[in-house]
Amino acid sequence: DAFYQARRDDLAHRVKRSRFEHSLGVSETAARMARVYGQDERLARLAGLLHDWDKGYDDEGIRARAVELGIADQLASYLDMPHLLHGPTAAAALAREFPELPAPLLQAIRLHTTGAVGMSPLDLIVYVADVIEPGRYCAGVDKLRDMVGKVELEELFVATLVYVVGNLIERRKLIHPDTVTVWNYYVARAR
Ligand code: DGI
Ligand code: FE
Ligand code: FE
Ligand code: FE
Questions:
Q1: How far is CA 86 from each of CA 59, 89, 97, rounded to the nearest angstrom?
Q2: Domains of the chain, with CATH numbers?
Q3: Which of 27, 80, 84 to mutate to test the pocket of ligand 1 (most atoms within 8 A of CB)?
Q4: What are 159-175's pLDDT values in tens digits?
């Protein structure tokens, strides 16, 4: 639709080419997953398109943007992980610029990097689609792609977390406290 096309054109100017292609991949993957899991396909397609809206900023730029958007409280827990701020800043910026965007879409964007306890189906879809979109090449991801529609959404999300958190550990990266909390919450539920 017109709103989607207009934001797609905006995004092409906000992020580099490869990130733009990634966003289109997440958009189509999220839409397909929404169809499979009985969620709003149009909302998922738009959330996927917009999820990396603020990915074009460098570390200093994204910190300044968080302050400017009035969400500097996020900065404390994200102190050494500024690359995780683009979710919260994108949600705040999009809400300000496009007040017509529904809250569930903004939430999915805000949570797409760390996850959170009690994620909605749309939140889970955007999180997973971010990892399995066709542009991501990695052996472990094919297994996740094959699970779409065969397992419940929460189970697919836990499998995706295994992949994402496992990668962070292997690369000796910091793990955001929200990501740890999410892991504990969903793993306990999956038992
Ligand atoms: O924006 P994307 O690259 O599409 O993916 P993303 O928003 O899910 O994550 C951005 C980066 O942050 C990516 O390299 C994975 C990484 N990441 C996700 N959770 C954590 C994390 N990095 C750290 N250090 N800690 C986390 O908990
Ligand atoms: Fe992202
Ligand atoms: Fe992600
Ligand atoms: Fe992404």
A1: 10, 5, 16
A2: 2-190 (1.10.3210.10)
A3: 84
A4: 999 999 999 999 999 99
